[in-house]
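Researcher: I'd like a structural prediction for the single chain below. Treat it as a standalone chain; there are no partners to consider.
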Amino acid sequence: MSISVSTAEQEAITLCALTDLIDAMVSPSLFHVVGDSPHANIAFHTAEHGQLFNILLQDFLAVPDKRLVGHDLAGPEALDSICQRLHFEIDGSASNMKVAVESLGDWLADEPTIEVWLPSIDFGGILTLSRHSQIRICGNLSKHYLLRQSHQARKMRTILRRAGCEVEEEDALRALKDFYERFHNDIFMYHASTIAELLNNVQWGIYEYLLPTYRQAMVRGDPGTGRYSYTRPAEFGSDFAFTLYWDLMNWVRGGRIVEKFTVTRHLKKEY
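Model: Treating it as a single chain, here is the predicted structure.
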């Protein structure tokens, strides 16, 4: 199956899917915001909620099925592409979204040097890999059990090779637990508040971008019935795309659940 859609339809499909996914991550069901801006942080309800946050974020960073959306850009890259075209912008409504998307992309692309100790293979040293890569590896380790980790073991071999440590795949597989302890339990948990802030800013940016379009598209029915509809954009020939456009307009109609917050600078200094 392959769906043929216009670029405007692509944008609506992508935004509908990504806002659903970000809402699942930036959610009171996973964490609560502690303290007031600009000194806030988030606290997951349990360690398992932190793992789910990582799994969902890994999905956000993964490449989608091109047959369904017409492109193979992962979440951050898809949002950046949308910012270059902006089919629904009215009176500069995308300004905050552009800033938020760029900030998220820059943060994920950063490649910090991390001191590690992997006792299972007796390796101590410095690893350098992007935050994007850290999150994707840890998300997969959170999602899959040991007997589905051969792909992550191959990634581990490559990372260690770049650090001057040559190991067999079996040793890399043994080292995954130590890697997870350092990069998920320690570093990812440290970064989680900042990630939540960045994602929430993106979500607010998308909401502000689409709000004028929602106001123009909304058609109210007879008073007292509660019925409404949305004007179908001229570029929308696909019923699938228009259904997701409708869902996207309903998402705007529902408003934002998590207010804007700013995380303490003390959680933005390391790694």
